[in-house]
Structure formats: structure tokens, C-alpha cells
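Input sequence (358 aa), recorded before submission:
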Amino acid sequence: MTNTATKPAIEELKPGVKAPVKETLLTPRFYITDFDAVAEMDLSLQETELQTMLDEMRADYNRHHFVRDEEFEQSWDHIDEETRLAFIDFLERSCTSEFSGFLLFKELSRKLKDRNPLLAEMFHLMARDEARHAGFLNKAMADFNISLDLGYLTKNRSYTFFKPEFIIYAVYLSEKIGYWRYITVFNHLEKHPEHRFYPLFKKFDSWCQDENRHGDIFKALLRSQESMWKSLKGRLWARFFLLSVFFTHTLTVLERSDFYQSLGIDPVEYDKEVIRQTNNTSARAFPEILNVEHPQFFKRLHECAERNQKMQEIDSSNAPKFVKSLRKFPLMAGMFTDFVRLYLIKPIDAEATRGQVC
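Predicted structure, C-alpha cell format:
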């Protein structure tokens, strides 16, 4: 599938500072939560594991890995305009996502400092990692004469309230799918270095290890709350968040297929591989995982991606707003229907098959 939508010119807040992308279903969100409820969480089921992971976070194994060496000190004018725009889009969305994590973890650390020292320090150290990632990505954007004003984002981005359990589900999946996204690209470029057009990709191995550690921390938080995995409600929410993350991933990857093609990656196969691996990994935390090998699973996801592309084409047309809405309605209804159908596919009981799946 090739994204044929016209790439708009980069919009700037001021010279050299990129205007944030319009907030949509597919753009990274900023979150707040019920900090009192987090402070009162009973962690006794996973306290030993959390303490072990805290010790690992204190060691900061990646503290020397995110260094801009001499390979970054060169001109990037040789990169063609299409690849440049696709890469800037990738950098912006990745930077925004990492910065979103930084803001959430920083605020959690601040609010929990006097009430739950273990979690407060854990979130402080995760905020350190996310800030490091966001800063490194923003410096990479600056190599292309554009960057984000992260202070502006902090003040002007809308914030979504999620209950603590929703934060745990969502962040766990965000970190684990982030791991598989980065390591899959890294492994591909190790085999095909001719497609590695920028040195940032060499950092993806260290990068994804941070994502993996963060995911393991949220796995421990999830498993410390029996209601999140030992109840019917927990099973239903686990499936919902899995499907929501996979749905968003497919639409995002296929919407930006030109970026993955610039790396010599088939975006459809990349999407499938990342989803399969994330789904299997989630069996270590979630009570149920999705049957992604069901013949309808990827078929319907990719049909939704095609509808999403058609809606983009409608949005970029010169039709009146109400005409655009009318034309998009059946496409949106089809996406919603397919989401429900995918949700109703019989899941895999991870609790019953934990040894086999993991």
C-alpha cells in the first residue's frame, strides 16, 4: 500500500520552529491521571520485582549511549526532499510521544514524592529516560533546520484524563510496541546498512532497551492489581487496549508508508511483525491477547487503513466542510464496524497458555 496523499510544506510557528501537527486520533496524546489513586495502589504482589527494577534504573546503563558523535557533524542536503519530509514527520511524532511520557512521569514523581517513595523515584528515572530521548530526537530535527518548541507543547497541547488502570494498560503497550518498532528497524538496517541514511538509527538498539525496561515496570504495576488481570472487566479492557494500539499502529504505519520504504522496509510486513511480537509479549502481562492469526484480523485492519487514506484525500480536497463530512461518514462507520468485529474475535487466554505463548 502506498500513501499517495500530497505532502504539505512544513508549517512553522516562527523560523526554524515547527508548528505542532494537528491533534487527531493518530497523533501522540498528553495524559493526566488520578494521582491520589496511584499513590494508594497496593504494590505488595510485585514489590520485590519493582525494587529490583528500580535498582536497574538507578544503574542507568544507557547514560553514555545517547551521544552525538562525529557522524552527526555533516550536511544532510544529499537526502532527497520526500525522504527528508517523511523523516521529519517521524522525528516529530516520536519526539512528541517521548515528551508526553516525560511530562506524565515527571508529574507522577512530583505528586508521589511524599506518599510512595518507591514509585516516585521509579517515575523520576523513567522521566529522565524520556527527556533524554525527546532531546535527542529534537536535536536530530535541528539537523534538518527545524525543531519543536517543547515548552510551547507543554502549555498548548490538550491533556486527556485516563484512570490509573487505563494509564497502566496504555503505557505498557506503548513501551512494548515501541520496543518492537525500534528493534525491528534496527535489525533490518544491520542487515541492510545501505538504507541507513542517518546515524540516529544506530541508537535504536539502546533506545529500545529503555522502552523494554519501562514496559517491564508497567507490567509489574499491572500484575500488582489483580482486578486488571483476574476479572472479566480486566479481560475486556486488556483486549480493548490491545486492539486500540494495534489499530492505531496499522493506520499510522500505512499512512506513512513512504518513510518505511525509504528504509527498504515493506510497511505492511513491518506492521504485521510488530503487532505479532507485541501481542505475544503482552501474554506475559495481560490475561488475554488477540488472535492476530485469524484470517480476518489483518485483512480488516488494512481495510481500515485504506479508508483512513481515503478520508485524508477528502480532507485535502476543496469540497465544502459539510460535503467532506458526508463523504467521510460511511468510511468512519466502516472503520467502527470493523473495530467491533475485530474485538469480537475469540481471544487467546494468556493465563491458561502462559507457558506456551511466552
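Checked by second reader. Residues 1-7 have pLDDT under 50 and may be disordered.
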